[in-house]
Specification:
globular, five-stranded mixed beta sheet, Arc Repressor Mutant, subunit A, 42% helix, 13 helices, Nucleotidyltransferase, domain 5, 16 strands
């Protein structure tokens, strides 16, 4: 076997061992050898490398079956960090997660420029500040992940259309790699949240085979888990439930069509509908939510009416895909209980016989951290597949990171 093939095989074995420790640890070297089929010498060499790089650590002893008790290995949470950016909300949210996908610190930056190149520059400035903080705290950043709304090809990192951000045919991953010299992954925000919810949500989420995650915010997005894998479709754009047309002659949507679900259910649409029906205008979605929570009848009617439409659309998706789990995210559904109850009633009302008994419908258990967890996990997978376990080296002074491989 030539040198190149040896390197590839070594990387494959390293990734396999790391994933096993990540998902099944604490685990001994003997167990790793048994479960992977790798020779004990290979396991010893690779775990030594991972331990030397700080990715895994010893954490006690396994029960002895005779002879010396074997040492157990687990992920070292502080062995590397993911910098994750979420552009879905009204602010630029940036989080730093460790190798256990725990949120270590979070920042929120106001979008003073809401779209286009100005928004890109604001995002770069925000990332630079967080990377400086990571450098000062000697956090080894493995990758940069961005979750953004809109149509995108996650395989290429190209944002095809993000109307709310005024980004069109933007090769975001290439731009950010040039800016920061880090591996970059770009993912649809709802896909990231769906994956995070599936991996780290409630106990039932981890048992789901086929799940849909629906987020209501500045837009309405959907993410699909099919066969326990994130389903992206032929171009990486699956799940755009917000652009299902429900009123062919309705409001003009940002996508250019009329009557999309998003024109009835998004935060701006809910605010517009409420203010259209009253002289006592609500200034923003927060004020509208507060009125609903305080018992404002009109506010609750607006929310429940939108919920009925959303439930019907999602119920039809359940019929098509035979889902066993539906999860709703976003502050609107989390805070307005009557809206969620209406969604469930409307959803169940269109289900085929027998589907309801096998279906869990709930509000996200991770809230805003779902997107961070999903983009961090996707980042780790991407880095492992592309670069093995080489990671940027923290440097002193003004240069933050070495060039990635």
């Amino acid at each position: 076997m030539d040198a190149a093939n040896n390197v590839i095989l070594h990387d494959i074995n390293t990734n396999s061992i790391f994933r096993l420790v990540q998902h099944q640890g604490p685990v001994s070297r003997v167990e790793i050898s048994e479960r992977t089929g790798l020779a004990a010498s290979t396991v010893s060499m690779i775990t030594g490398e991972l331990q030397g790089n700080g990715f895994i650590r010893e954490c006690g002893y396994a029960t002895s079956t005779g002879g010396r008790r074997p040492r157990l290995l687990e992920i070292n949470p502080d062995g590397g960090y993911f910098l994750c950016v979420d552009l879905a909300g009204s602010n630029i949210a940036v989080g730093v997660l460790n190798l256990s996908f725990e949120l270590v610190h979070e920042w929120s930056y106001e979008k003073t420029m809401a779209s286009g190149e100005s928004l890109y520059r604001e995002m770069v400035k925000s990332i630079t500040e967080v990377l400086t903080w990571c450098n000062e705290n000697t956090f080894k950043v493995i990758s940069l992940g961005v979750a953004a709304p809109g149509l995108m090809n996650a395989d290429t990192g190209k944002i095809v259309e993000a109307s709310n951000l005024n980004w069109h045919d933007l090769k975001l991953n290439e731009l950010l790699e040039q800016e920061f010299h880090l591996p970059v992954i770009v993912e649809n925000d709802t896909n990231a949240a769906a994956y995070g919810e599936f991996l780290y949500g409630s106990e039932n989420a981890s048992k789901a085979q086929n799940m849909m995650y629906i987020a209501v915010g500045t837009g309405v997005g959907g993410g699909l888990i099919i066969g326990r894998e994130l389903y992206k479709g032929s171009q990486g754009m699956a799940g755009e439930i917000g652009h299902v047309v429900v009123q062919p002659n309705g409001q003009l949507c940002s996508c250019g069509k009329k009557g999309c679900l998003e024109t009835l259910v998004s935060e701006s649409s809910l605010l517009r509908e409420y203010n259209h029906q009253t002289q006592a205008k609500a200034g923003d979605i927060e004020e509208l939510l507060e009125r609903a929570e305080a018992g404002d009848a009109l506010a609750n009617t607006v929310f429940t009416s939108a919920g009925a439409t959303l439930g019907m659309v999602v119920g039809n998706q359940v019929n098509i895909l035979n889902l066993d789990s539906v999860v709703f995210g976003g502050q609107v559904i989390a805070r307005v209980r009557p809206m969620f109850e209406t969604i469930v009633k409307s959803l169940n009302g269109v289900l085929l016989p027998g589907f309801e008994s096998n279906l869990e419908v709930r509000v996200s258990s991770l809230s805003s951290s779902a997107g961070y967890a999903g983009i961090a996990y996707s980042s780790l997978t991407s880095v492992m597949d592309k670069y093995g376990f080489k990671h940027p080296v923290m440097l002193e002074g003004t240069t933050l990171y070495s060039q990635f491989p």
